[in-house]
Amino acid sequence: MPDSMFIHNSHNVSNLVYHFVCPTKYRRVVITQYVDKSLKQICEGIETRYDWITFLEIGADQDHVHFLIQSLPEYSPTKL
Questions:
Q1: Confidence of residue 4 (pLDDT cuts 50, 70, 90)
Q2: With respect to CATH, is domain 13-71 assigned 3.30.70.1290?
């Protein structure tokens, strides 16, 4: 997962970074090391399919996950 960098397009330069926190339902403790490893592999797969999204950091606790995502301004947070 690379460091945050400027994205240069033909008419603009951007450095748009989102921080998403996704808790589990009812904050139940369900995220194990296996789930954390699988989640990171899935995010790497998403990164290779879409060139406009970059996962800078993925951190998981037992009841929530943090995503630090860099994207282009054309895509809204709901599209991510």
A1: low
A2: yes
The two structure tokens encoding residue 42:
């899935």
Closest alpha carbon to 14 in 57, 75, 64, 67: 75
For residue 55, which amino acid is it? Answer: F
Q: What is the DSSP string of 15-71?
A: -EEEEEEEEPGGG-----HHHHHHHHHHHHHHHHH-TTEEEEEEEE-SSEEEEEEEE
This prediction has a pTM of: 0.85
